[in-house]
């Protein structure tokens, strides 16, 4: 009986414990008070914890104080009594946590021994005197810190609270719904930032504004950077390393600050063994930076740095490059000898690691970065130890050069990515604004993850500002890649981010604004708008944007940017006062700055054309360009000197490196006799329209097509000075004008007017010529038998100008139910996403990626590991195919142009190919692959587009089908142009010619 009773008590005790554990099942929600009744819940951490845990607790307590004015106590011993208590600790570093584990009140099996993983749950009566406790348990020091700061995030505190002045809403009380949940481990082990090209922002701001006592980027600045990284759950930094900045390890306190914040320190591709060669190598006392004749001195530097950092978490970049991002100084050696020398460098570095740390090199994090010439060495046989992470790079413009082969993916060291969202170098810098499309970041990093790049992601973030969103996206992807299965997830992420910062009401509108901003930046970055290049630096050039055809693509781009400017101004007026500074930094300045840079240069180009055509508006365009330049200056001055009372003084430069694109453009004025006159400029013509000559019209608009329902423009403009009243009279009742009269004056906005000419297709005759073809116009591409000609007479007090209007209005039975694309003015234009049909191949298919490309969506051959198909017969039988139905009114040889996003092959020796054919022709393979820094590659990255073409023959007018097959997986198709000889050149392909 006694035994039974004791056994029962034991069983009851076990059952109670088990019930308590079971009550905290994953997913269960418990409300827990953070601050109530003018009192904040204390947080208990052990004195034995790493410094980062106390830092996180202090940040959290400060966040609660900022929101509620109540400061939580940070305590180190269990109180005798507490209604609520937060207990945060690392397994093995907090006796209370360890006791809860031993008593089986919490289950840590899901996190124990894992990398950066933590759990949270609410327990009732976990200890005597404690009624309720929120338990945060970390597998390591960073995990515990992340767990504490997750509470701040749940309270509405942004990671950018300090760095972008995002103030959380004030509240009297805070209660959080705590889900019993395990976080981590992260998708990518090492996730971090490379502070680079800091010369025009971060360094002068730190040296002169934030940390003048150091006069550089010192421990005070790094503490703020590391706080941001903790809140973003980033764990790795490559410190700033340009010549303007002292080497990280030479400034007292930097290394210890990194360790305090649990930030792992690594270095870039040209900084071996944590050494900043730019700043630390003294030629006078140390000789040449050359390993074949000065190895002992170089090893001394490596040994000293490794010894000094042996107690810190570090990632050793192995190998060796030259100084200042240059090739290794061994040009007089053969390539084979250079490779052997580099292998010796790596062997010596690993021996130094073992000697100075007392650990086997295989146990130490190391990165080998095959960047620029080092990639060439690797591709030609350089041996890299299997335990070293192969860290692949993009081409500096967002396109990853190479990824791990299936064999390389098996290496114990794994793979990583060094990725640029900011860059200094040829063909042109982009250091000023955030202009890398988040969808491109997603596509490239998502792809890299599929190739086993799970070990290290580093983002070159320049000066941090204004790359805030791209940094957030990059780090959130690295933390949990499963959240980002498609492009829509990026848009949802952005909307959630903006909603968190500025409220749910405005977030959808802001998201569309920012997506439109990044789309326009993708088509051409604001820093590239002068059509100049650098290294060597060239003067501003002529724009590729066509002003005289295709509805004037330059003005369409200008209108789009001005619309974004108006939208962001409207939003700014609606943002509450407490959010204004954050909105300025995160949304207003980048959108407005990019818009103004476009306005500055696009009005410059409009000024040039207007001056050639004799338009009085040339001066107004010049004035608008100047005004845009002046507003960039004033906005940047506000950012630096008035925003947050000068907190960001020296942070924002409107002209990094003083490249020509940042200058005030030159301007032209038209030659004039001063008398007011009427001028016309027609779509399709570079110069002013001619006056009437012997009742024939030398100037004719592009042919308008009944199957496209298109239109064309005429600009009515003032010449000289004064006023001109004008009117326009269509000579046929089927011609429609957007305006038929007006007055031109010298006032801004009244010097010219654009008229749109369209056709009432219900009235226009069909199938015959009613007027003789105008002089001087090539009708070869439009069969005259189906064209109707008309005219518009423009007149003023002393001027009459007649222009021709041609309408192509046949009646083809086979087009009655046709739903494809139709030839217009000698070409067929198609957005690749709009295939008439698709077929699935063997293990591959075409899928849609939204938010990329000029058209706004691209089609991608997936999966990434699909097998390339190159044999024409196998292509037709096995490859996924896109089919595009189109109709031509002409026949003969055509030029099929395919525009793709300019990605690179996955591996050495691979390509980026598709195959095309019209009708039953054999597939012709086209390859978008570029080599090195060729002229073709430069143009591709400046435009974010790669265009390849092939000749095809259309045997007779009528219905046809363009077929596009996958050859290599990963190729991303954007736009297609079938040119029958009518395309006159443009930056983007003309608008789609889909039958209407």
From TrEMBL:
Keyword match Hydrolase: yes
Keywords: Hydrolase, Signal
GO biological process: carbohydrate metabolic process
Top-level taxon: Bacteria
Domain Gylcosyl hydrolase 115 C-terminal: start-end pairs: 820-992
GO MF terms, alphabetically ordered: hydrolase activity
One Pfam family it belongs to: GH115_C
Family annotation (InterPro entries): GH115, GH115_C, GH115_sf, Hex-like_dom2
Keyword Hydrolase part of the UniProt annotation: yes
Signal peptide (UniProt feature, chain positions): 1-23
Protein name: Glycosyl hydrolase family 115 (Putative glucuronidase)
UniProt organism field: Mangrovibacterium diazotrophicum
């Amino acid at each position: 009986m006694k035994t039974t009773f004791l056994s029962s008590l034991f069983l009851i005790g076990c059952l109670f414990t088990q019930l308590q554990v079971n009550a905290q099942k994953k997913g269960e929600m418990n409300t827990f008070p953070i601050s109530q009744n003018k009192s904040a819940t204390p947080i208990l951490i052990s004195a034995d914890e790493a410094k980062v845990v106390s830092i996180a607790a202090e940040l959290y307590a400060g966040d609660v104080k900022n929101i509620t004015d109540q400061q939580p106590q940070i305590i180190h011993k269990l109180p005798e009594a507490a209604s609520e208590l937060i207990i945060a600790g690392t397994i093995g570093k907090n006796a209370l946590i360890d006791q809860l584990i031993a008593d089986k009140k919490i289950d840590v099996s899901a996190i124990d021994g894992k990398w950066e993983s933590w759990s949270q749950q609410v327990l009732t009566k976990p200890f005597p005197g404690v009624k309720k406790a929120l338990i945060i348990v970390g597998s390591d020091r960073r995990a515990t810190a992340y767990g504490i700061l997750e509470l701040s995030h749940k309270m509405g505190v942004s990671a950018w609270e300090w760095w972008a002045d995002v103030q959380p809403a004030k509240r009297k009380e805070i209660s959080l719904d705590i889900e019993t949940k395990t976080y981590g481990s992260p998708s990518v082990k090492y996730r971090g930032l490379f502070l680079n090209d800091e010369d025009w922002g971060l360094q002068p701001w730190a040296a002169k504004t934030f940390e003048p006592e150091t006069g550089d980027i010192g421990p005070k600045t790094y503490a703020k950077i590391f706080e941001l990284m903790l809140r973003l759950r980033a764990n790795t930094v490559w410190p700033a390393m340009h010549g303007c900045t002292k080497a990280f390890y030479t400034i007292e306190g930097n290394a210890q600050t990194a360790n305090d914040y649990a930030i792992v320190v690594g270095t870039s591709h040209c900084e071996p063994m944590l050494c900043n060669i730019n700043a630390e190598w003294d030629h006078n006392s140390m000789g040449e930076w050359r390993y074949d004749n000065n190895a002992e001195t170089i090893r001394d530097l490596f040994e000293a740095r490794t010894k000094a950092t042996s107690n810190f978490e570090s990632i050793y970049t192995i190998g060796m490059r030259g100084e200042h991002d240059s090739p290794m100084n061994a040009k007089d050696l053969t390539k084979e000898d250079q490779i052997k020398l580099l292998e010796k460098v790596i062997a010596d570095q690993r021996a130094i690691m073992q000697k100075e740390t007392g650990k086997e090199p295989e146990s130490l994090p190391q990165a080998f970065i095959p960047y620029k010439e080092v990639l060439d060495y690797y591709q030609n046989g350089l041996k890299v130890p299997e335990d070293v992470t192969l860290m692949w790079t993009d081409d500096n413009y967002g396109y990853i050069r190479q990824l791990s082969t299936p064999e390389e993916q098996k290496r114990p060291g794994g793979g990583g990515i060094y990725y640029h969202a900011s860059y200094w170098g040829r063909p042109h810098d982009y250091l000023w604004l955030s202009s890398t499309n988040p969808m491109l970041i997603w596509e490239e990093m998502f792809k890299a993850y599929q190739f086993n790049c799970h070990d290290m992601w580093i983002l070159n973030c320049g000066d941090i500002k204004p790359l805030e969103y791209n940094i957030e996206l990059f780090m959130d992807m690295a933390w949990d890649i499963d959240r980002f299965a498609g492009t829509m997830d990026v848009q949802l992420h952005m909307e959630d981010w903006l909603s968190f910062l500025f409220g749910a009401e405005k977030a959808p509108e802001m998201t569309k604004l920012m997506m439109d901003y990044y789309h326009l930046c993708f088509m051409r970055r604001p820093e590239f708008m002068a059509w100049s290049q650098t290294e060597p630096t060239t003067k501003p050039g002529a724009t590729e944007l066509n002003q005289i055809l295709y509805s004037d693509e330059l003005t369409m781009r200008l209108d789009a940017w001005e619309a974004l400017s108006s939208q962001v101004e409207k939003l700014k007026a609606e943002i509450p006062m407490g959010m204004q500074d954050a909105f300025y930094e995160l949304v207003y300045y980048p959108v407005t700055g990019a818009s103004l840079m476009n306005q500055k240069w696009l009005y410059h180009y409009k000024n040039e054309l207007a001056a050639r055509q004799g338009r009085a508006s040339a001066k107004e365009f010049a004035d608008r360009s100047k005004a845009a330049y002046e507003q960039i200056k004033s906005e940047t001055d506000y950012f630096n000197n008035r925003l947050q009372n000068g907190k960001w003084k020296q942070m924002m430069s409107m002209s990094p490196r003083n490249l020509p694109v940042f200058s005030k453009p030159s301007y032209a004025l038209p030659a004039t006799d001063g008398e007011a006159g009427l001028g016309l400029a027609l779509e399709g013509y570079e110069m002013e329209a001619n006056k009437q000559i012997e009742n024939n019209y030398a100037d004719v608009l592009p042919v308008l097509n009944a199957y496209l329902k298109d239109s064309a423009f005429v600009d009515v403009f003032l010449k000289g000075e004064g006023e001109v009243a004008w009117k326009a009279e269509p000579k046929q009742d089927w011609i429609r004008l957007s305006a038929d009269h007006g007055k031109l004056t010298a006032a801004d906005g009244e010097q010219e007017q654009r008229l749109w000419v369209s056709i009432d297709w219900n009235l226009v005759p069909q199938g015959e010529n009613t007027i003789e073809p105008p002089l001087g116009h090539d009708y070869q591409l439009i069969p005259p038998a189906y064209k109707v000609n008309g005219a518009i007479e423009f007149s003023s007090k002393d001027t009459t100008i007649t222009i021709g209007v041609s309408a192509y209005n046949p009646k083809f039975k086979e087009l009655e139910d046709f739903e494809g694309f139709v030839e217009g003015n000698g070409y067929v234009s198609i957005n690749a996403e709009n295939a008439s049909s698709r077929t699935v191949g063997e293990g591959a298919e075409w899928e849609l990626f939204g938010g990329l490309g000029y058209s706004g969506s691209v089609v991608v051959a997936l999966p990434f590991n699909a097998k390339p198909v190159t044999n024409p017969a196998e292509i037709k039988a096995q490859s996924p195919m896109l089919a595009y139905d189109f109709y031509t009114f002409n026949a003969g040889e055509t030029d099929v142009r395919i525009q793709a996003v300019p990605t690179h092959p996955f591996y050495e020796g691979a390509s980026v190919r598709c195959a095309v054919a019209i009708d039953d022709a054999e597939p012709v393979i086209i390859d978008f692959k570029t080599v090195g820094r060729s002229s073709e590659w430069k143009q591709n990255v400046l435009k974010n587009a790669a265009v390849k073409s092939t000749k095809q023959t259309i045997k007779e007018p009528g219905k046809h089908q363009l077929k596009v097959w996958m050859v290599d997986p990963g190729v991303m198709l954007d736009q297609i142009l079938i040119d029958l000889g009518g395309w006159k050149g443009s930056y983007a392909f003309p608008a789609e010619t889909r039958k209407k």
